[in-house]
Amino acid sequence: xxxxxxxxxxxxxxxxxxxxxxxxxxxxxxxxxxxxxxxxxxxxxxxxxxxxxxxxxxxxxxxxxxxxxxxxxxxxxxxxxxxxxxxxxxxxxxxxxxxxxxxxxxxxxxxxxxxxxxxxxxxxxxxxxxxxxxxxxxxxxxxxxxxxxxxxxxxxxxxxxxxxxxxxxxxxxxxxxxxxxxxxxxxxxxxxxxxxxxxxxxxxxxxxxxxxxxxxxxxxxxxxxxxxxxxxxxxxxxxxxxxxxxxxxxxxxxxxxxxxxxxxxxxxxxxxxxxxxxxxxxxxxxxxxxxxxxxxxxxxxxxxxxxxxxxxxxxxxxxxxxxxxxxxxxxxxxxxxxxxxxxxxxxxxxxxxxxxxxxxxxxxxx
Amino acid sequence: xxxxxxxxxxxxxxxxxxxxxxxxxxxxxxxxxxxxxxxxxxxxxxxxxxxxxxxxxxxxxxxxxxxxxxxxxxxxxxxxxxxxxxxxxxxxxxxxxxxxxxxxxxxxxxxxxxxxxxxxxxxxxxxxxxxxxxxxxxxxxxxxxxxxxxxxxxxxxxxxxxxxxxxxxxxxxxxxxxxxxxxxxxxxxxxxxxxxxxxxxxxxxxxxxxxxxxxxxxxxxxxxxxxxxxxxxxxxxxxxxxxxxxxxxxxxxxxxxxxxxxxxxxxxxxxxxxxxxxxxxxxxxxxxxxxxxxxxxxxxxxxxx
Lengths: 366, 305
Fold this sequence. Notes:
Chain A is built from 13 helices and 13 strands. Chain A has 366 residues and is α/β, with parallel strands linked by helices. About 5% of the residues of chain A have low confidence.
């Protein structure tokens, strides 16, 4: 009797587990709510990094424009790209710009709309060290490649002469899930360190060196391990570090200065890379020019079709994006997101104004 | 009672058949879907998928061995710790404790089963991992350090902590089932044994012998949970796809890699590899299940002799 009950329970549990695992990530997009006088729902899906600000925008925009509802699900950057390609969401969101080959999968032209700026910071657990640690591309690479094993390594001591670094093994912690945070972090290291580029490279989920460090899921997993393990180091998003008051390292930038991650230094990185920003706005702004620029920064994007199938919905989407990069930016500071530089706002305005439905511009009419 | 006639019987029977049919349909459907969706890696890697020890999605190299190893070993560690404890609790509750003591303890054991696994995971990071690092691991390294299992760097995050958290999570289930099994053994057997002059210990042995098949079932149920457990393990096991003899080193489980990567897997081959991992997990649980069935059958036979 017991074994029968067990088998049934077991099969059921397995079934539930498998079903939960094998379902395609859905954007939850139902595009039934079209035009007419009713409420228009804009379904968005993608990166988890901008979730707090997008949710804030959604609620504030909902107050200002009661007939438009914005729903945002954080499913991850990859899922966001998939959702917009397969049109299961009205807009996608991604931390890293889409690759050319992925853009080709879409049946119509996709546009990248940068919304806010973020940064990746290195947080560490060194109980005796009070002043902020200073790190450079070389030392970070060394730690994660396993060539710098101890905190009192000569390279670390050289950058931190005033600190009393312990004679202890370094435990690096990385994200084991595929993430935009990792993409930005590894992009910075690949750009600035040939050894890193050859051995690990830039990727949302690179092949970490076996035997070096441990993996942890999401920002909170990395934070948990770093907080609980003396002599460990890990990387998390700036917004997350600020919200949790984590110690963060100063990072050496292109001009040789050690810079603290802050809204100002992240904006400076964006300003420093304006000249190098291409027309489609797909750009990595790590290792940017400028004496005050923080080197591990990035844009986060909303992905939309240039030509919208549903005119009413398309108009609502264009208006929402316009509102977001103007009125929406005032909510950024509290949530620790850096606003876009003025030059980029100008370019984004042009992008939004170029949105059409059936060939007719969506925003020029008002 | 009113006569419902043959129609009532027919409706009842049809309803029962439909409910019973759901399970085979779901299981077969799921296996088929998983096989279909993992065709790219099934064809591309073949058997090498199971024996490959490199997992590098960025370079499109997929080998499942470190994950199979991590899943099986962490579950076994959990089982080795949890089974004696669960048996002890269950025997105490049924054979020794008075009702006044047994009821609250049984209630607490069931309460333990209701804690969500992510809570176990957080507790694992903040309490268990430091405990393993500072006390348990240090102790093991000092006294059993000659074994390859307890060598190397001790960070508190790794296979040992993963196994411990699994032990804690499966203890309530194994305990509850074993308790039910022991309670099902007729009291006449205990009375007969005692009447023949058997001690409490000897009586318990006879009861355990008669309940053996049920106990094996309980253990396998616990193992099933351990194999599929995701959130709690992923928080403390270190998530590094490597095969290391040391229990202090980080490892990775199938369920963890699925949970961490499914949403972000954009690449077709990667998605296929993950789905095939699900299939592997299915296979592992199936094999475990089959072994358990054989065990139950053998135990049953030796008992009836």
